[in-house]
Design goal:
Number of strands of chain B: 9
Number of domains of chain B: 3
Number of strands of chain A: 0
CATH class of the largest domain in chain B: Alpha Beta
Strand content of chain A: under 5%
Number of helices of chain B: 17
CATH class of chain A: Mainly Alpha
Helix content of chain A: over 70%
Shape of chain A: globular
Oligomer: heterodimer
CATH architecture of chain A: Up-down Bundle
CATH architecture of the largest domain in chain B: 3-Layer(aba) Sandwich
Radius of gyration of chain B: 31 Å
CATH superfamily of chain A: Transmembrane di-heme cytochromes, Chain C
Order of helices and strands of chain B: HHHEHHEHEEEEHEHEHEHHHHHHHH
Structural class of chain B: alpha/beta
CATH superfamily of the largest domain in chain B: NADH:ubiquinone oxidoreductase-like, 20kDa subunit
Largest sheet of chain A: none
Distance between the termini of chain B: 119 Å
Strand content of chain B: 5-15%
Distance between the termini of chain A: 57 Å
Structural class of chain A: mainly alpha
Number of domains of chain A: 1
CATH topology of the largest domain in chain B: Rossmann fold
Number of helices of chain A: 10
Helix content of chain B: 40-55%
C-alpha cells in the first residue's frame, strides 16, 4: 500500500466505518438511558422541574467558589483543555471544510497561528492533567485503564494534528493520514467510554436541577 | 554534431557564452542543493562531458512529457544540454521510421552496452501485450530488452514513474510503472504530468558531473527537486496561515490571490519544484495562475478523492452514512430499550415479598 493509498483508505472507508460506529454507538447509548424510564413521582410538586433543570444547566457552567478554592488546578485545567479542544476542532479551517462537506453548513475560521498556539496550550494542559492524576494519591487510586485510555485518544489527535501542520517526523501524506486515523480512533472509542459525557452531561445536569426544582429547592 | 565532441565545444558552437554557461552551472548546483564549492566541479565535468547515448522509449503516454521538454523553452542552456546528449532513439522526434528506427535503437544498444541512459515515458500495459506496441514489439518486451544494457533508467512523467493516468482505476490495460518490471537497474523517477524541464536537465547534469544518480526520496525521485512540498514553498502560503481562502473561482478571495486549499489544492501533500522552478522559463505555475495543485507528481493522483475536494474532507458520502447510521442506531436503541423495559417488568413480576416470618422460618432450618 502506497502512502497515497493509505491516505485514501483513511479518508474513505476507514472514516466511513468510524462515523458509523460513532453515530450508532452514541444513539444506542442515549436511547438506552432515556428509554429506561422513571417511576412516576407521586409527591406533590413544590416548584417547576423544567425551570430548575434549565437553571442548573446554566449555573453549573461556572464553578462555585468552594469548588474553585478546593480544586483550583482541576477546575482551571478542565476549562482550558475543553475550550482548547473546542477551538482546535471547530475553528480550524480544514476542519470547518469537513463539517461543511458533511452537513452543508460552515462558519468563519480562526487564523492558523491562533489555532497553533491553542493546540500547544491544550497539549501542555492535558500533559499536566495526566501528571496531576498520577501524582495525586486519591486520583491515582480512582483511575482505571479507561481513564488513561480516554486521555490517550483525546491527546493523540492534538499531537498528530500539530505534527501534521508543522510536518515533523513523517511525509505530509502519512502525517495527515495518521492524524485522521487518530481522530477515527477517538470516534470509535467515544460511545463506549467516559467520552460519552459530551452528550450525557447536559441531560444529567438538567435532571439534577429538575429533581431539586420539583421539590422547590435550589440545586 | 560529432559524437566525441565535448559539451563545452557543443555549447561554444551554439554561441553560448562562458558567462551564461557558468550561470547555468551555478543555478543548477543551487537547484540541486549542492554547496557553492561544487560549482567549478559541475562546470569542469560538463565542459569535458562526452555526449552520452540516450535511448528514449515512449509507451502508454500522451507525448505531453516530450512536449514539455522540447517545446517549453525557446533555446536555453537547459535546452542545449538536452541537445548535447546523443538522443539515439526517440520515435516521436527521430526522422527515421520503421525498421530504420529499430535498427538505430539496436545499434545504440550494442555500441554503448552498459553505459547508455534509458529514458522512459508512459506506463507499460500488462493485461494484454497487444494494447501498446511499437514496430510489432510489445512495450513490455521492448523495455526488458532495452533495459539490459542501460547504465540507469530515468522514468520521465508520472505514467512511467507510478503508472499515471493509464493506471487510474479501473486500470483496463493493467498499466504498471517501469520500477515494477525492472528491479536490477538504478531507476530515477522524474514524476509530474508533465515533469518540469529543469528537473530533467538537473538530473542529466548530475549524471554527467558525478557519473551517479542524485540522492532520491522513498519514491525514487531526486530529493533536490522533490524534497519540499508545493505548500511549503507556495507564495500563497501566508494566506493559508492567516485563514484567507478563495471560496470559489471568481470570488473576492480568488481575485486577491488567496489560498486555494478550499478549492481542493493538493499542494500540502504534493512534492515538486513547481513553486520554485516554475514553468515556461520561470513565468508561472498552476497556483499562480489561480488553479489548485492537482498533485500530478504523486502516485495515484487521478484517484485521490477528486481534484476540487479539499484534502481534509472525506472521500465517501458521509452524509448518507450519518442518516443510515442514525436510523440503525435508533432502531437498535429502541430494541435495546424495549428489552430493558421487559427485563424490568419481569423482575417486578418475579419479585416475592419476604416477611419476618419467612425469614425466621428460613433461619430455623
Amino acid at each position: 500500500m502506497t502512502e497515497t493509498e493509505f491516505l485514501m483508505w483513511v479518508r474513505g472507508p476507514a472514516f466511513q466505518v468510524a462515523t458509523l460506529v460513532f453515530v450508532v454507538g452514541v444513539i444506542v447509548r442515549l436511547l438506552e438511558i432515556l428509554l429506561l424510564g422513571r417511576k412516576a413521582n407521586l409527591a406533590e410538586a413544590r416548584g417547576s422541574a423544567m425551570a430548575g433543570g434549565l437553571r442548573t444547566l446554566l449555573t453549573r457552567m461556572w464553578p462555585d467558589r468552594g469548588t474553585l478554592q478546593r480544586s483550583t488546578f482541576t477546575v482551571v485545567t478542565g476549562y482550558v483543555f475543553h475550550i482548547g479542544l473546542f477551538v482546535t476542532i471547530f475553528l480550524f479551517a480544514p476542519h470547518i471544510l469537513l463539517i461543511r462537506d458533511v452537513f452543508g453548513v460552515g462558519w468563519a475560521a480562526l487564523p492558523t497561528a491562533i489555532i497553533d498556539a491553542t493546540t500547544v496550550v491544550t497539549i501542555i494542559t492535558l500533559l499536566a492533567v495526566l501528571v496531576y492524576r498520577l501524582r495525586d494519591p486519591v486520583q491515582r487510586f480512582l483511575s482505571g485503564f479507561q481513564d488513561y485510555f480516554v486521555w490517550l485518544v483525546t491527546i493523540l489527535p492534538l499531537v498528530t494534528g500539530y505534527l501534521a501542520f508543522h510536518r515533523i517526523g513523517l511525509s505530509p501524506p502519512m502525517l495527515l493520514a495518521t492524524h485522521i486515523l487518530s481522530v477515527e480512533l477517538l470516534m470509535v472509542a467515544f460511545p463506549f467510554t467516559k467520552l460519552m459525557h459530551a452528550f450525557t452531561l447536559f441531560m444529567a445536569r438538567w435532571y439534577n436541577g429538575a429533581i431539586a426544582g420539583y421539590r422547590g429547592v435550589r440545586s | 554534431m560529432a559524437k566525441d565532441e565535448t559539451l563545452l565545444e557543443t555549447l561554444q558552437r551554439r554561441g553560448i557564452s562562458r558567462r551564461s554557461f557558468l550561470k547555468f552551472c551555478a543555478s543548477t548546483a543551487s537547484l540541486m542543493a549542492l554547496p557553492p564549492a561544487m560549482i567549478p566541479a559541475v562546470a569542469r565535468a560538463l565542459e569535458q562531458a562526452r555526449r552520452p547515448s540516450v535511448i528514449w522509449l515512449s509507451f502508454q503516454e500522451c507525448t505531453g512529457c516530450t512536449e514539455s521538454l522540447t517545446r517549453s523553452h525557446s533555446p536555453t542552456v537547459e535546452g542545449l544540454i538536452f541537445d548535447a546528449i546523443s538522443l539515439d532513439y526517440h520515435h516521436t522526434l527521430q526522422a527515421a521510421s520503421g525498421d530504420a528506427a529499430e535498427a538505430a535503437r539496436h545499434a545504440a544498444m550494442e555500441e554503448n552496452f552498459g553505459s547508455y541512459l534509458l529514458v522512459v515515458d508512459g506506463s507499460i500495459p500488462t493485461a494484454n501485450p497487444g494494447y501498446s506496441t511499437i514496430a510489432g514489439i510489445s512495450n513490455h518486451d521492448m523495455l526488458l530488452e532495452t533495459a539490459k544494457g542501460a547504465a540507469a533508467i530515468i522514468s520521465v512523467g508520472t505514467c512511467a514513474a507510478f503508472g499515471g493516468i493509464p493506471h487510474a482505476s479501473p486500470n483496463p490495460t493493467g498499466a504498471v510503472a517501469v520500477s515494477e518490471l525492472i528491479t536490477d537497474k538504478p531507476i530515477i523517477n522524474v514524476s509530474g504530468c508533465p515533469p518540469i524541464p529543469v528537473v530533467i536537465s538537473g538530473v542529466l547534469t548530475h549524471f554527467l558531473t558525478f557519473g551517479t544518480l542524485p540522492a532520491l526520496d522513498e519514491l525514487g525521485r531526486p530529493r533536490a527537486f522533490f524534497g519540499q512540498s508545493i505548500h511549503d514553498r507556495c507564495y500563497r502560503r501566508p494566506f493559508y496561515d492567516k485563514g484567507l481562502f478563495a471560496e470559489t473561482f471568481d470570488d473576492e478571495g480568488a481575485k486577491k490571490g488567496w489560498c486555494l486549499y478550499k478549492l481542493g489544492c493538493k499542494g500540502p501533500t504534493t512534492f515538486n519544484a513547481c513553486a520554485t522552478a516554475k514553468w515556461n522559463n520561470g513565468t508561472s505555475f498552476p497556483i499562480q495562475s489561480g488553479h489548485p495543485c492537482l498533485g500530478c507528481s504523486e502516485p495515484d493522483f487521478w484517484d485521490s478523492g477528486g481534484f476540487y475536494k479539499p484534502l481534509s474532507t472525506p472521500t465517501r458520502d458521509i452524509g448518507a452514512t450519518l442518516i443510515y447510521g442514525a436510523a440503525a442506531g435508533a432502531a437498535a436503541g429502541v430494541a435495546l430499550g424495549a428489552l430493558n423495559q421487559a427485563r424490568k417488568r419481569s423482575a417486578v413480576k418475579a419479585h416475592q415479598p419476604v416477611s419476618v416470618d419467612d425469614l425466621e422460618k428460613g433461619g430455623s432450618q
